[in-house]
Amino acid sequence: MMEMPKVISCTVANCAYNTSQICHAMAITVGDISNRPKCDTFFQTSIHGGLKEVTAGVGACKISDCTYNNELECNAQNIKVGMQSGAAECLTFKKR
User: What is the pTM (predicted TM-score) of this model?
Assistant: First the structure.
């Protein structure tokens, strides 16, 4: 059985789930309708959410042309999220 990869760092400071560059959502989804590796869980607000004892995993990846995508699941060892082209994106994304 595959382990869910962890989000080992997130530099998107204005996300509700980010505290000290750690994502505290239970899991994130990568990808949106534009087929960019955006963090679809990103939520900009001044209110902090998530569970402090949790480090997010990657629950699903909708970017089928990523090297690490296997049947819409991420099989990278871990990922990093950061700002790219004005959006919160998976920086581990690697086009096939």
Answer: 0.93
